[in-house]
Each structure stands twice: as C-alpha cells, then as structure tokens.
Amino acid sequence: MNPCHVCEKPTKNKCSNCNQVSYCSVQHQKQDWKTHKPSCHPFKIAHNEQLGRHLVATRTIKPYEIVLKEAPLVRGPAQISAPVCLGCLNGIEAEDHIECEQCGWPLCGPECKSLDEHKAECSLTKDRGQKVNVQEFGGPHPLYTCLSTVRCLLIGETSPEKASKFQELESLESTRRGSNQWKADLVSIGQFIPKFFKTQKFSEEEIMKAVGALQINGHEVPTTDPSHVAVFYTASFTENSCLPNLAKSFNKNGHCILWAPREIKKNAHLSICYSDAVWGTADRQRHLMQTKLFRCACERCVDVTELDTFYSAIKCEDRQCGGLMLPTKTDDWNGNWRCRECHKQVQKHYVERILERAGKDIQSMEKTVENGLKYLKHYEKWLPPQHFHISEIKILLVQLLAKDQKELMVIADDKLLLKLNYARELVELYEKLTPCEVRTLGTLCFELHSAIAEQTRRVALETSLSPKDRLEESLYYVEKCVNYLQYESDIFIEGHMLKQAKINRDALRMVIRI
Ligand SMILES: [Zn+2]
Ligand SMILES: [Zn+2]
Ligand SMILES: [Zn+2]
Ligand SMILES: [Zn+2]
Ligand SMILES: [Zn+2]
Ligand SMILES: [Zn+2]
C-alpha cells in the first residue's frame, strides 16, 4: 500500500500510465492530473555508478507507443552553419531577408523577430554596442559557430528552471580538455565570445562547459533546412545502444518523439542510437569516440558478426576458401583480421584498402541503376552480400528501379523481380540489425509492398490464378510501412510516403475483402 498522492490515504491503485504515483480514487487522480501530467511517463529516471542517470521502463511498453514527447531545452544553429534566420533557424539568402533592428542579425521576415529564442544573442549583441553585419551567405559563416553556446549561456535569462536543467547535463569537460576539438572550440567559441561581444559575463571554463554539454547532448534536428542542433533534457538520459529499443522522430516543431517500434519489457533500460545504426561497427565506434567520447560496448558492438549478418565482414583473401574475415579481437577493429574458415590472417591495411575504395566509389558514383548493378558485380569479389557497402547500393537500387507508380507499371519483368528480391532481403536484414531505424525500414517496406502488388497485377493479367495470397503479402508490408512511418511529419519525404501508404493500404483492404 502506498499513500494517495493527494490525501495520503493508503491505497493499492497507481496511475496506470507511469505506474509510479498512487491515488485512492478516480477523483483524486483527476484532481492531480494537471500537475502530474508533465512527469507521467512509462519510465523513471534511475541512477547508478556505472551509467549515471538512465531511464528504466516502469511497465511493459506496447509496440508503437510513444514513450516521450519533448520540446527542446535549447536549440540553435549547428556549429558549422551557413547564415540562418535566428528566429526559425531556416536558411536565408542574400537578397531575401531582413535584419533585426536591435542587433543586426539576419532574419527571414518580421514574423521571426519576436521569437523568444532570438533574445539571447539579440541582447548580448545590443550590449556590445555595435550591430553585426553579415554579408556572406554562400557557405559556413564563422560568426554562427558560437551562437548555440551563447543561447546555452543565457538560458537563465528567460527561464531559471531551464538553466538549472541545463546545469545537470553531462559536459565531459575534463575528458574533452586538451583534445584537438577542444582546442579548436576554445579559439572559435571560448575566446571568441568575450572578445566579439565585449563581455566579461562568462568565464572561459563556463563557456567551454556549455560547448561540451552541447556536443555531448546535442541532436541534429532535420526539421529546418539546414538542420539545427537541439538539446532535449529527459531524452538526454537515454542510454546509447547500437541495437536500441527506441526510435527517434521529430514533429514539425522540432520536438522529439521517442517511441517503441517493438514491445519493451518492464525494467528494461531505454536506449537510442547516438550514432548511425546503418553504419558498420568500426565506423560507429569511431564516430562515438570522436563526438561523444566513449567506447560503445552494446550487444551489437561486442559481436563482430553483428548478429550473424556479417555486416562488416570481408571475403577471405583466398578466393577458393569462401570464408569470411573479421577482426581477431572483438574490441579491436584496427588489429589483424582472420578468416573464420581457413584461419588465414591479413593486416588491417589490406582490409582498409578494400573498404576505402568501396566507400569512395559509392561517393563518386553517379547514382543510376546501371552503375549500381556494376558496383555490385565488381565488389561481390571482396564483400559478402549483406556487407554495409553492398547493402547501401541495394537500398539505392530498390529506390531507383521504378521511382514512382508510373515507372513501376512499365518496368521490365526482370528488373521488377530484382527490386522485389533486394527489398525483401533488406527488410529482413534491417529488421534484425536495426529494428529502430524506422525511416529506412518504412521506406523499404513501401517499396516491397508496391513491387509485390505490381508483380501480382502482371501475373493476374496472364493467368487465372487467384492472387489473394500475394495481395495479402503486399498488404502486410504496406501495414508495416504505416507502422514504421506513423510519426513522420509531412515536411519529410517519409511523411508523404506515409500518406500514400495509407491510401494503398485502404485500397488493398477493399480489394481483398471483395
Ligand atoms: Zn486520495
Ligand atoms: Zn502517471
Ligand atoms: Zn525565420
Ligand atoms: Zn535581434
Ligand atoms: Zn554499440
Ligand atoms: Zn579463408
């Protein structure tokens, strides 16, 4: 029995959403809802030595359930950014913008002038006694490098509550101190802010701590063009995993939505991928070390086979062998690699040469079906069929082979089959390896559903076979697509795909019912 949150009468009843607060009656629950709502989540913030603060599910979380929807604590231009409007953070052009009368920073129009978020740099610039004058609009502009840090430093002027939350965030300042990135940041931000804004308001240490907190906790938010950076307070306590249990989406306003593509059991730790789960392990680890300063030891990272997908493996140097080569030590991608069949070893630079060439060839390739097929034919000599480079090209091919419904109707039978087979193979691979990469999965399911539907249409034209099973399979994948993309805003391509998927789903349901 726990005391009712309102009257303290002992009770067994708890709020069914968060499972953490007790109420003696529906009345008392209703009465308290307004105050309780902001902290009512199906998880709690827990703490231990090893992980620091982290999030633990307080009940079973159902598939597709939103676990957390959160507005940013602070947001601003990316550290390397072309001039953007300091109201809405969208890009601006030389001929098409206004200047804030108070500070001179460019804005896209009068509607962006009065936004609260601009107040930080606006007041600091006013105090400087001289307006800024931005003239170059073509590329990254050095003045913008410090702006998100300025917003963090002045967060308390608009909200003391936000300021104390910001203070709680990890900055890893002592780990960062002295690194090349830290030294570059010291010049472009730490020493730049006092000089440029002619202010003694902030100590160098205070500024560098804010820079660290931004880099460690910042998310790239693609709801503006170019993307901006934002920090989300509660979301910052989710653990990193390259096999996470939460997907991350953003709504139109740049609020983050963390949700569960699959069921999450009670007491499980909540996690997202801080890197890109579609990358191979060596690339993810390098990226995490550079940007977040830690070595990931998640389930996927400690398994060189990446759940038996051999996503990062190369084929044995001995062509006759047919085995796959992977690092000899799970935690050292820079040491020797060994064949799992014949045990032959090669040095890292042998592997590097192959992977570098394979990566560069993708970058410089004009993205056409012919080039994609040529790439696969060439690199299958060195890379297994599920390798991340091969998979990247297959994703490309699935999208390029019949880019829309019109092309789908006339594409040659063999090409259609290719699209269908690659899509099927990739859905299977990524559902295993990256179950929370919902945009990749949703897109692949959409392509697979449409390829199956088109193939069925062709078969039905030529024979009297009942296509019902095939249509049901097509429906199965379009429903999956809707599930994966359901929180995608219509400012994104995936949001448009979601709309089409819903139309196709309803049409298929009708046809199957008849
Ligand atoms: Zn009560
Ligand atoms: Zn609750
Ligand atoms: Zn604007
Ligand atoms: Zn201003
Ligand atoms: Zn990992
Ligand atoms: Zn071998």
From TrEMBL:
Report one GO cellular component.
cytoplasm
Q: Kindly state which keywords UniProt assigns to this record, in alphabetical order.
A: Metal-binding, Zinc, Zinc-finger
PROSITE patterns, per database record: ZF_MYND_1, ZF_MYND_2
The gene from which this protein is expressed is Dyak\GE13567
Superkingdom of the source?
Answer: Eukaryota
GO MF: zinc ion binding
Q: In its UniProt entry, what is this protein called?
A: MYND-type domain-containing protein
The species is Drosophila yakuba (Fruit fly)
- All copies of domain MYND-type, residue ranges: 4-40
Q: Which CDD domains match?
A: SET_SMYD (cd20071)
The uppermost taxa in this organism's lineage are:
Eukaryota, Metazoa, Ecdysozoa, Arthropoda, Hexapoda
